[in-house]
What we know:
Layout: E1 2-9, E2 22-27, E3 31-37, E4 42-51, H1 57-67, E5 77-82, E6 87-91, H2 100-108, E7 114-120, E8 126-133, H3 134-143, E9 148-151, H4 153-167, E10 171-177, E11 180-187, E12 190-198, H5 202-215, E13 225-229, H6 236-242, E14 248-250, E15 258-259, H7 272-279
Parallel strand pairs: 2-5, 4-15, 5-9, 10-13, 13-14
Antiparallel strand pairs: 1-4, 2-3, 3-4, 6-8, 7-8, 10-11, 11-12
Amino acid sequence: MVTEEKRIEEVSFSAARSGDLDLFLLLEDDSLHVSVTDEANHVLALTKLVCQEHTSSHDFLQESMHAEPLLRLKYNSVSVGIGNQTFSLVPKRLFDEQAAPSVYHHLLGPHGDGFHLVDEFQTDEFVSVFFVEKHLHESITSLFPGAGIHHVSSTLIPVFQNLARQNQETALYGCVSGEVLYLSFFKAGELQFFNRFHFRSARDFLYFVLLVYRQFSLKPDQTPLYLGGSLLSDSSIYNLLYRYVRHIRFLEPPEGVTLQSLLSKEPRHLYFGSLSLKACGS
């Protein structure tokens, strides 16, 4: 069963002119973030759908189509961000597209019937190799012909890297989407680490964050952690995390994305993940 957890539509949004607008979907295991923007990068509509029972991503997307009117409009372009664990980052200088099939198996291991896709980063330093299950791929391509399909890593990392190069400090950058934490570590503006963690509790969340601090011999009371996405400052996760990580800073919306009147009243970091799809020109 699919239910709507959040919905915001600006007064400037008009379904009648959807052909001039862009649709961005962030599909996680149990949630679908939908955002609609215009040619000036104004966010006009945003909703979050959640799956109340375990089902495949393919079935979840199909059910969401029936539940959400925004998904049934015709758009200028559609981009879909896939958030799954089956991905690997490869330095572009080491990636041989001709040898890709054997590389896929080595990096990602054996999987069922589906497609291995390659995302090139805007920073031109990495490619993201990821797997999309066959039925999900067919659903996306049939429901949204011509849609771009990307892994969340290739939308978040360029945004994180732009921030890291501006700040020029040793820091962690993360984004929370439901019970998923995407976490990266940058030193002098260069990516050192990125991974996706699934957590069930505040203690899980803390464990994964401190794991990265320990792996790179960082001091949690000194090295800042920048966070975007669905984490609030009054949550049990934040309260426990702040006991150990003393410099937690919430991220602003990605550069180039403009929040209008209704969305501007929300915490500004809340939709960082889904809006990163737009910021990266996906």
